[in-house]
Amino acid sequence: MNRTLRAVLALLTSVAALLGLTTAFAGTAGAAHPPAGQTTRYTMTAFTNSSESNLYVYDSPDATGFTLRKGPAYTPPSGLIRDPSIFKHTDGFYYLTYTTNWTGNTIGFARSTDRVNWTFLYNHTIPISGLTRTWAPEWFIDTDGSVNVIMSLTSASTATHFTPYKITATNSALTAWSAPTQLSGIGPNYIDTFVVKVGSTYHAFTKNETTKYIEYATASSLTGPYTIRKTGNWAGFGDWVEGPALVRLDNGGWRIYYDGYRAGKYWYSDSYDNFATWSTPTEVPGLSGFIRHATVLKETVSGGVTLPVNTTRSLQSVNFPGRYAVVRSDNLGYIDPVTSSSSTAVKQSATFTVVPGLADANCYSFRDSAGRYLRHWDYRVRFDSSNGTAVFNKDATYCPRPGATAGSVSLESYNYPGRYLRHYNYALRVDLYQNTDTFRADSSFTVAGPWA
Q1: Which whole-number Å values give the CA distances from 141 to 90, 149, 155, 163, 197, in the listed order?
Q2: Terminal CA-to-CA distance of the chain, rounded, Å?
Q3: Closest Cα partner for 102 from 125, 133, 61?
């Protein structure tokens, strides 16, 4: 963990204790990865720089490294498919809504059983007189189960003065909709409004089309009135950015994806303090510069990787199969050669007890024979005795993902999603996922029998 961030965490934890709060990070309360036999799947739908009329579908086990499932996956019978938004309905179908054209008063709908093969349903006309543009429809499912679409509308002769509105489905088939209602307090000239609800508060992320920043607003009702809380470059997202879309991570944090359209980049950033601060923006690996205005659907599905708990095992490097994760006398982690002729001490250094994760029992921690845990510090892997703090527990917890080869596993940092246990110059680190075969091999291990 970065020392500056660690100091901030410690300060906030101390303040929380003084105030009698149960946690400094309400966003992580009750968060957990899926249990054995299940896993998280993040499905991304996007249009691309190469086509505004074709849908591309990707998915990911970790919300960081996305794999193309089909592209193009859907082309509407006419018009565009800009700004595609996806959700899964209670009827078991996946639904898309999208911008049908640069001008006009309709949004499109399509349906799928498998997320990759789509059937056009219909274009819905928004009944507002003089409407000239109907952009960026986004699904919002409220806690009462109501299905809503939030979109940016304008009646101006040019692409200005957008204001967010919502419509609500009036039947379960999603073929009938309420009259549009404005989200008061946002606008005019705000587009790409994306709303999430935490507790009883609605949080809106919306692009100020004048300043080109993503701003932040809150309300106690979906339709407002919203109060703009943050403006300018408040989160470090930069300007000339649009298309914000949020998803909850397994460890309780929130991830925002957004389109840096002027620079031709696609970014994500994470928050763990109810949207007050955000991590340094990171390009979406392998997709930055190609996808445009994506949304991401999170689901729990069957499958996943499981490890045998309360047993001793060794972690064998996939691309250096004669080397194993070890702890050396300097308490740091490496991959070193281990053979049947190695000393007892070397064999012992490569043997760990796999236990339920200290921060999340559905993930894993690794304890050596001295009782120390494999944890990260400034992104370097070391072995330390537990000090019982929440920070230590998170540093020492890793969540399993499929590795680069059949039967192998990659271990994602619990508190730094997107960072993986990997070797570099034989030293073990937690490094940010890279969309390369080398990184995938460096971060894959075979869980082998114990050496000692």
Answers
A1: 11, 8, 27, 20, 9
A2: 30
A3: 133
pLDDT score for 31: 65
Alpha-helical (H) ranges within 220-302 are none
Q: Is the pLDDT of residue 329 over 70?
A: yes
Per residue in 382-419, pLDDT (tens digit) is: 999 999 999 999 999 999 999 999 999 999 999 999 99
Element (H, E) at 301: strand 291-302
Task: Give the CB-side neighbour count of residue 444, counting CA atoms within 13 A.
Answer: 19
Distance separating alpha carbons of residues 240 and 237, to the nearest angstrom: 9
Asked if pLDDT for residue 106 goes beyond 50, the answer is yes
State how beta strands 147-154 and 380-384 pair. unpaired
| pTM higher than 0.85 | yes
Closest C-alpha among 98, 45, 50 to residue 69: 45
Element (H, E) at 8: helix 3-19
Query: In this structure, is the dihedral angle defined by the CA atoms of residues 152, 56, 414 and 141, taken in order, positive or negative?
Result: positive
Is the distance from CB of 441 to CB of 433 less than 8 angstroms?
Answer: no
Residue 291: half-sphere exposure toward Cβ, Cα within 13 Å: 31
Q: How many whole angstroms separate alpha carbon 53 and alpha carbon 112?
A: 17
pLDDT of residue 30 exceeding 50, the answer is no
Mean pLDDT for the chain overall? 93
Helix (H, G, I), strand (E, B) or coil at 313: strand
Residue carrying the six token digits 């149960």: 22
In degrees to the nearest 10, what's the CA dihedral of 139, 142, 145, 150? -30
Contact between 33 and 363 (Cβ < 8 Å): yes
Cβ contact 109:122 at 8 Å = yes
Question: Per-residue pLDDT tens for 237-296?
Answer: 999 999 999 999 999 999 999 999 999 999 999 999 999 999 999 999 999 999 999 999
